[in-house]
Amino acid sequence: MEHQSSATSTWQGGGLADGSGTTTLGTGIGGEFAMSWKARTEGAGGHSSPEELLAGAHASCFNMALSKQLAEAGHPPQKLETRAITTFVVGKGVTSSRLTVRAAAPGLNDETLQKAASAAGEGCPISQALKGNVEISVDASLA
What we know:
Layout: E1 7-12, E2 20-25, E3 32-35, H1 37-42, H2 50-72, E4 79-89, E5 93-104, H3 110-123, H4 125-130, E6 135-142
Helix pairs in contact: 2-3
């Protein structure tokens, strides 16, 4: 089975430092995300960055993979809350993606969570796309 996803980005008003743009997801969910170099390198408020969108993609992908791992281990999750922090370094690009998850599931113990989180961190498709290029870390704890 194959599924394609899309997004559209528009850039205007000049070069990298003085231009700005927007990105819209193909589904239209979330509206337009304003983008700028300043937001990408300094975290300027009100604008997003490709790395922020990557963080959202990685966190959601990881949650899906972890929910599968936990369900297969007999602990379908009640709630998974994952924060992804991507690091962008000028001249190097994206250097890391840190995933921090708090998991709640009936009967779940730390050993089972760590094993499932490790497998999810290695196996989610976004992790697979980043593998070999970006340092990925997972910090999992019980809620």
